[in-house]
Design a protein that fits this description.
Length: 654
C-alpha cells in the first residue's frame, strides 16, 4: 500500500504562562538581550534574574534516555519524547522499531499489512511473548479484525489503540528481574505517561492540528490533539487533561493466494491426461484484492496528582481509547481446485513445472461448461472496532530516608467488536478458461476469461452467504500491588527491593453467529442493478498482468441484500467453535538484592508466582471432568462446554 504522510501538524498554541526558565536549543548558555548588553555597558551590575536555562529538543530527550539506560541494572532501551506528542514517529510501534532487537508487525492475524503498525516483539519472537505495560501495569486490549478476535493473540497488545501523544517515555526491558511483573517471556515494553507535577510551568496548554494524506484513496484525514495541565504554585496539586481525535483513510491493492498451493492428485482428470503433473502443486484461489478502511481513533487521558509533602504523593490516572474501523474487502479469484483442475479440460501444451510447482499454464475456455473457473468474495464489516481503558490509583510514601513504599491498584478493560459482516460469494467466469505465469518472488501474472467488469456472468449456485458476527471479545484485568525498597549506605549492597502483587485477568468471547443464506437468494432478479469498479490502474500499481476494472457492489447494497437474504438467527446459527473463556488469578511475592561498585552493577533475586487458571471451551464430545451438555439448537451440531482448572506455581526469573 502506498501512502504519503503530509506533516501539516505543528503546535499552534504553546502557552507556558508562568515566568521562569529561558530556552536554548543546543547550548547550555542563553544569549544576552540587547537591553542586558546596554545595561552592562552603562556600568550596571550583571542581570541576576536569569534563574535557570532549560535545554529542550532532541539533545535533551537523548540525554534523558541515555541516563536511564546507564542507571538501570538490567539491559534496557529507552525512547523519550522530545516534547508533548513528539516521539520520533507518529506511531508508538514505529518509534520502537528504531531500537536494536525490537521488531514490529502491521497485523496480529491474517488481515495483512497496513500503514499503521500494530504489534511489537523482541528479538524476532512472537508478539504474544512480549508484554506491554502502561505505567508499570497491564492494559486490556482489543482487536478490530475478526480473525484476531477469534484466534489466539496471547498477551500481545494492539498499538493501534495507543497514540503517541500520550507518551512521555517508553522503556524496553530485554532481561527480566525478580521485581518485574510476570508475563513478558521475551521482554517488556513499559509506556510511561506524563504526570501533572512533572511539568515545569504552572499552566501548560497545547493544541496540535494536522492531516494525513493517503495517495491511493486520494483523501486527507484530520489529526487533532490537545493538552491542558495546571498545577498550583506550591507544587502540591495538579490536573492534566488530554484528548485526541485522529482519522485515517486506507486503501490496499494487492494479490493473495488465499488457499495456498494445492496438490494435483494422481487420480484427477488433469493427472490422467498429463501423468507428469501427478503430485505437482498449483496456486489455488489466486486473486486481486481491493481493501478500503476508514479509521477513527478518539479518546484521552485524565490525571490528578496530589503531593501534600515531599514524602508522599498520590496519583489517579485514567485513559480511554476507541478505534472505529469499518472496512470493505473485495477479492476476485481464479478458482483452480473447483474449476479447471477439477474438470481437467483445456490445458494447453507448453506448461512449465519447476521444483514441483506448476509455474505457468493456460487453460482453454470450455463451451457449454457449467463450472465456475472463478469466485468472487465481497465482505463489508460495518461496526468493526476496538477499545481500551484503565483507571489506576498509585501512591508513593517515603517512610524514612532509606525505606520507600509504592502501591498501585486499578482496573483495565479491552474490547473487540465485529457485530456483523455483510457478505456475498459468487461463482464467476463459468467455463471461461484461465492462465498464470509465476515470476519468482514477484507477484504472479494471471488472467481469468469472461467479463469481469459487470456482474453479467455471476453464478450464485457456486457461491454462498457466509460471515461471522455478534463477536464481542473482552479482555479485562483487576490488579493490586505493593512494592518496597530499602536503601543501604555502605558497601556493595545498595538496596533491597521487595513486594507483593495480585491480578485477576479474563479474556473471553461468549457469543458468535455464523450466518448462512435464506430465501430466494440465488434469484438474480433480487440482486442490485448498479455497481462500481476497481481503479483502472489497479494491475499497473501492482506491476503485473491481471484482470482489471473488476466490478463490485457498494457496502450499502451488500447491507440491504444481507438484511433480506442472510440467516442471522442467534440460536440456529450459533457458532460454538469460536467461543471461549480464559481466566487467570495470579499472586506473586518477590525479593531482590541490588549491588553496585565502580563501573559495575548487579542484582539477584527471585519471584514466586502462584496461578489459578480456568479455561472453558467448546467441543463436539466431552473433553474435561467439568462439562456441560450436550447443548442443542445450533445448525452446526450439538456441543459440550468444557472447563479445565489448574493451579501451578513457579519461581521466576527462570
Amino acid at each position: 500500500m502506498s501512502t504519503r504522510k503530509t506533516l501539516l501538524s505543528a503546535s499552534i498554541l504553546a502557552a507556558l504562562l508562568s515566568v521562569g526558565s529561558a530556552w536554548a536549543a543546543d547550548s547550555g548558555t542563553a544569549p544576552q538581550t540587547d537591553q542586558q548588553t546596554s545595561n552592562k555597558k552603562a556600568g550596571d551590575k550583571d542581570v541576576q534574574n536569569l534563574a535557570a536555562v532549560t535545554v529542550t529538543g532532541i539533545r535533551a530527550s537523548e540525554a534523558g534516555s541515555l541516563a536511564l539506560k546507564k542507571d538501570s541494572v538490567v539491559h534496557v532501551d529507552v525512547v523519550t519524547a522530545e516534547d508533548i506528542g513528539k516521539l520520533p514517529a507518529k506511531n508508538v510501534a514505529d518509534t520502537l522499531q528504531r531500537l536494536p532487537g525490537v521488531n514490529i508487525s502491521s497485523s496480529s492475524a491474517s488481515e495483512g499489512g497496513f500503514d499503521e503498525n500494530d504489534r511489537v516483539s523482541l528479538r524476532g519472537t512472537n508478539p504474544s511473548l512480549t508484554q506491554t505495560l502502561i505505567n508499570g501495569h497491564n492494559v486490556g486490549t482489543g482487536d478490530w479484525f475478526v480473525l484476531s478476535q477469534v484466534q489466539t493473540v496471547g498477551r500481545s497488545v494492539s498499538y493501534t489503540l495507543l497514540p503517541s501523544e500520550i507518551v512521555s517515555q517508553v522503556v524496553i526491558k530485554k532481561t527480566a528481574t525478580a521485581k518485574d511483573v510476570e508475563g513478558g517471556t521475551a521482554g517488556t515494553v513499559d509506556i510511561i505517561t506524563r504526570k501533572p507535577l512533572e511539568f515545569a510551568k504552572p499552566v501548560t496548554a497545547e493544541v496540535a492540528v494536522g492531516g494525513v494524506y493517503s495517495s491511493l484513496p486520494k483523501e486527507t484525514k484530520p489529526q487533532v490533539s490537545g493538552l491542558f495541565n495546571w498545577k498550583n504554585d506550591a507544587d502540591t496539586f495538579g490536573v492534566l487533561v488530554q484528548g485526541f481525535y485522529e482519522e485515517r483513510s486506507l486503501q490496499r491493492e494487492g494479490q493473495e493466494v488465499v488457499n495456498g498451493f494445492q496438490t494435483i492428485a494422481a487420480d484427477s482428470p488433469v493427472a490422467q491426461a498429463h501423468p507428469d503433473l501427478a503430485g505437482v502443486r498449483y496456486p489455488d484461489l489466486l486473486g486481486s484484492v481491493l481493501f478500503n478502511q476508514t479509521r477513527k481513533r478518539t479518546g484521552g487521558v485524565i490525571d490528578l496528582q496530589i503531593k501534600p509533602s515531599n514524602d508522599f504523593w498520590l496519583d489517579l490516572n485514567a485513559f480511554y481509547s476507541k478505534l472505529e474501523a469499518d472496512n470493505y474487502n473485495r477479492n476476485y479469484m481464479m478458482w483452480g481446485s473447483h474449476g479447471f483442475v477439477a474438470a481437467g479440460a483445456g490445458l494447453q501444451d507448453g506448461y512449465t513445472v519447476k521444483n514441483g510447482v506448476l509455474t505457468s499454464a493456460t487453460w482453454d475456455a470450455v463451451p457449454g461448461s457449467n463450472t465456475a473457473y472463478g469466485v468472487y468474495d465481497q465482505i463489508s464489516r460495518p461496526g468493526a472496532g476496538s477499545e481500551t481503558s484503565y483507571v489506576a490509583l498509585e501512591a508513593n510514601w517515603n517512610a524514612t530516608d532509606h525505606l520507600t513504599f509504592n502501591g498501585q491498584a486499578g482496573t483495565t478493560r479491552g474490547k473487540g467488536n465485529s457485530p456483523v459482516q455483510d457478505v456475498i460469494e459468487l461463482g464467476t467466469a463459468v467455463g471461461a478458461g484461465a492462465s498464470w505465469n509465476m515470476n519468482g518472488l514477484d507477484p504472479i501474472d494471471w488472467n481469468l476469461g469472461g467479463d469481469n467488469t459487470t456482474p453479467s456472468g455471476i453464478q450464485p449456485s457456486s457461491g454462498w452467504i457466509f460471515g461471522e458476527g455478534n463477536l464481542h471479545v473482552k479482555d479485562n484485568e483487576d490488579w493490586l500491588k505493593v512494592d518496597g525498597s530499602l536503601a543501604f549506605d555502605e558497601g556493595a549492597l545498595t538496596s533491597l527491593d521487595f513486594g507483593v502483587r495480585y491480578a485477576d485477568h479474563t479474556r473471553e468471547n461468549l457469543a458468535s453467529m455464523a450466518q448462512g443464506p435464506k430465501g430466494d437468494w440465488q434469484n438474480l432478479a433480487n440482486y442490485p442493478t448498479s455497481w462500481s469498479n476497481y481503479p483502472s490502474n489497479f494491475c499497473s500499481n501492482l506491476d503485473i498482468q491481471c484482470p482489471d476494472g473488476v466490478w463490485y457492489y457498494s457496502p450499502e447494497q451488500l447491507a440491504a441484500f444481507n438484511a433480506q437474504f442472510a440467516n442471522r438467527d442467534p440460536q440456529a446459527r450459533f457458532y460454538f467453535n469460536d467461543i471461549y473463556s480464559v481466566n487467570e488469578k495470579s499472586s506473586a511475592v518477590y525479593g531482590q538484592l541490588n549491588f553496585a561498585g565502580d563501573n559495575w552493577q548487579a542484582n539477584v533475586g527471585a519471584r514466586y508466582v502462584g496461578t489459578k487458571e480456568s479455561i472453558s471451551y467448546s467441543s463436539t464430545s466431552p473433553q474435561e471432568a467439568i462439562v456441560e451438555g450436550p447443548i442443542t439448537g445450533s445448525a452446526f451440531g450439538d456441543y459440550y462446554w468444557n472447563t479445565y482448572k489448574h493451579d501451578y506455581a513457579q519461581w521466576l526469573p527462570s
